[in-house]
């Protein structure tokens, strides 16, 4: 049982695979770095490999080769990716690199010339070609059966569901459109088929992800609905699983999602990347500079669904950010009273237009502002969680050990938000169970409770 630290990375997804290969079966390992969208890419690659007869190894030692799916969003993430590649080379020696950092192959081969191949983001066929060249397949159609839902890198009871790729925004600090292209939405029916298979296989929670979830389907020229995310959300809500929306830009039509949350069709949870609150900072970011109107939207969301949970991420120390602009952000945070907040100190990213902006903020000032921002966010989180003591809430069980059952409420996304712990009367619970809990204690980020009726 572990509590969430206040600086928990919101962009890190951890892969979990357990499988015992048959004798002589070619085996591939996977290291999946970066955001949940990259994790879905890893799952697709492994599903294709599994269908071709490869086994999946949970460690370097048991693999004939290792795929490292990299992140290239921040310089610190690039360094982490290079470290992971180096570790895989040291432990295994046969490494194939893919993912966002793969868009810069010379950057990777300059640091690690012994990698077998480098491919870019969502280049599934090129990854398979590289694997075939390094470790030829040897399928046995009588033994190698594919799970209905494919290979998943998350626990069995929840799954990420990627509904689109790419992004049409031009934020100056971001290079995702350069790496992953313009918005390209998956067909509604394809998304629903995947979701149905996941729920049929035992998934109790669908985590809907993309670069811009609320823009889903707006890239279709001939579409029946002006905003296709609305019918998709309603159809996903009909499957009986929790449906959680991530990376939702606050367009006006988002207000039409909120009644579905009040109805119980989808989880009352919005993950919205506000990034900042001062209009001048937002303009330098090339983002909509409408923080005051955003407060009106937040008030409307809470009016229509009082139990809604709002999560967001912010950047402090953006080039040109003055103390006055930062104070505006703190004041806005006080008024917005967001439930879950993450924060990054600004970093230059190779290829980002923000690198050329004047008046970069010194590192010590960025650190000071990050500390002050997180202290303010922690105080808000503590107060909002304290208000839940005495309430009865549905929870989903993620893990059970000898100390407690680690659960989440509908206000908590896995690995990035808090937990609810049951440390009495948790005997007999198992991951994936959904039950009602009465909250009896709260901290800055987590809750404790007991099952109703125990």
TrEMBL record:
GO cellular component terms, semicolon-separated: cytosol; ribosome
Gene3D superfamilies: Methylthiotransferase, N-terminal domain (3.40.50.12160), Nucleic acid-binding proteins (2.40.50.140), tm_1862 like domain (3.80.30.20)
Cofactor(s) the protein requires to work: [4Fe-4S] cluster
Ranges for domain Radical SAM core: 153-383
Entry EC number(s): 2.8.4.4
Family: Belongs to the methylthiotransferase family. RimO subfamily.
Annotated protein name in UniProt: Ribosomal protein uS12 methylthiotransferase RimO
Lineage, uppermost ranks: Bacteria, Pseudomonadati, Pseudomonadota, Alphaproteobacteria, Rhodobacterales
């Amino acid at each position: 049982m572990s509590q969430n630290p206040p600086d928990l990375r919101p962009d890190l997804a951890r892969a979990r695979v357990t499988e015992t290969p048959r004798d002589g079966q070619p085996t591939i390992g996977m290291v999946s770095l970066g955001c949940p969208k990259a994790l879905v890419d890893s799952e697709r690659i492994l599903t294709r490999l599994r269908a071709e007869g490869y086994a999946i190894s949970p460690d370097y030692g048991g693999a004939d080769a290792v795929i490292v799916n990299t992140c290239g969003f921040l310089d610190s993430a690039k360094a982490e990716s290079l470290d992971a590649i180096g570790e895989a080379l040291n432990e295994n020696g046969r490494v194939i690199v893919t993912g966002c950092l793969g868009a810069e192959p010379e950057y990777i081969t300059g640091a690690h010339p012994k990698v077998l191949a480098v491919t870019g983001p969502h280049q599934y066929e090129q990854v398979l070609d590289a694997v075939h060249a390094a470790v030829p397949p040897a399928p046995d159609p009588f033994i190698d059966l594919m799970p209905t839902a494919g290979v998943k890198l998350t626990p069995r009871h929840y799954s990420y569901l990627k509904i689109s790729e790419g992004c049409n925004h031009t934020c100056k600090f971001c290079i995702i459109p350069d790496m992953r292209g313009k918005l390209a939405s998956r067909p509604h029916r394809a998304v629903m088929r995947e979701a149905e298979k996941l729920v049929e296989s035992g998934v109790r929670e669908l985590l809907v992800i993309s670069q811009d979830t609320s823009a889903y389907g707006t890239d279709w020229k001939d579409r029946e609905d002006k905003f296709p995310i609305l019918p998709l959300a309603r159809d996903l809500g009909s499957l009986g699983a929790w449906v959680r929306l991530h990376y939702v830009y606050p367009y006006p039509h988002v207000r039409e999602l909120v009644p579905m949350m009040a109805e119980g069709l989808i989880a009352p949870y919005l993950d919205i990347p506000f990034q900042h609150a001062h209009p001048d900072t937002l303009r330098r970011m090339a983002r909509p500079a409408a923080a005051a109107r955003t407060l009106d939207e937040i008030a409307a969301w809470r009016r229509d669904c009082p139990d809604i949970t709002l999560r967001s991420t912010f950047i402090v120390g953006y080039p040109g950010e003055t103390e006055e602009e930062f104070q505006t952000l703190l004041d806005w945070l006080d008024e917005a009273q967001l439930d879950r907040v993450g924060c990054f100190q600004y970093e230059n990213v190779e290829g980002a237009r923000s690198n050329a902006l004047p008046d970069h903020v010194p590192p010590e000032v960025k650190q000071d502002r990050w500390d002050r921002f997180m202290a303010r966010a922690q105080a808000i989180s503590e107060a909002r969680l304290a208000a839940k003591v005495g309430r009865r809430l549905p929870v989903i069980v993620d893990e059970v050990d000898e100390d407690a059952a680690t659960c989440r409420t509908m206000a908590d996304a896995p690995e990035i938000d808090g937990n609810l712990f049951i440390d009495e009367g948790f005997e007999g619970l198992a991951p994936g169970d959904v039950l009602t809990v009465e909250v009896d204690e709260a901290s800055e980020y987590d809750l404790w409770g007991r099952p109703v009726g125990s």
